[in-house]
Sequence to fold (169 residues):
Amino acid sequence: MTRIISFCLAVLLMAVALPSAAHDYSQGEVSIEHPWSRPTPPGIMMGVGYMTIRNTGNSEIVLKAVDTSRAARVSIHKTVSQDGTMRMRLLKDGLIIPAGGIVELKPMSYHLMLEQLGGPLKVGEQVPLTLTFDGAPDMEVELSVDSMDGNNHNSGQRPASHQGMTQDH
Ligand SMILES: [Cu+2]
Fold:
């Protein structure tokens, strides 16, 4: 009886603990939930980065810069609709996460752009990132490169809009 209970408990704990261990990072008042990316097709030198940033502190923080060994540069962007087309805008001053607030980096919204990738991003790969904040210590996280299957993130438009964005800058 005791054995069955502890087994069930173990399974339950595993179910709760595994996804968060794989995907969530927390440091002080900042947590980063489910950092992920997508595989890149051959010849496309840009990748994306998505995550949820939560600030439980009493003052705002700003994501100022992101670095990775996997790409020459990482930019912080926002996708905006302008004259009926989706365009990407570079957030030069960084991304503000208000006190007690949450900002989601997700398709068609805020995102990271990994520029000049050292090679295609492959499903299952973990991409190390260093996040530099104003108002909070740096954080090291890893983007998991997830399969595009089962997501409807309108991948067909991604290379085209990335090219448009590059010409803008
Ligand atoms: Cu972008």
User: Anything to note?
Assistant: Confidence is low (pLDDT under 50) at residues 11-21, 150-169. Residues 27-168 form a domain with the Immunoglobulin-like fold (CATH 2.60.40.1890).
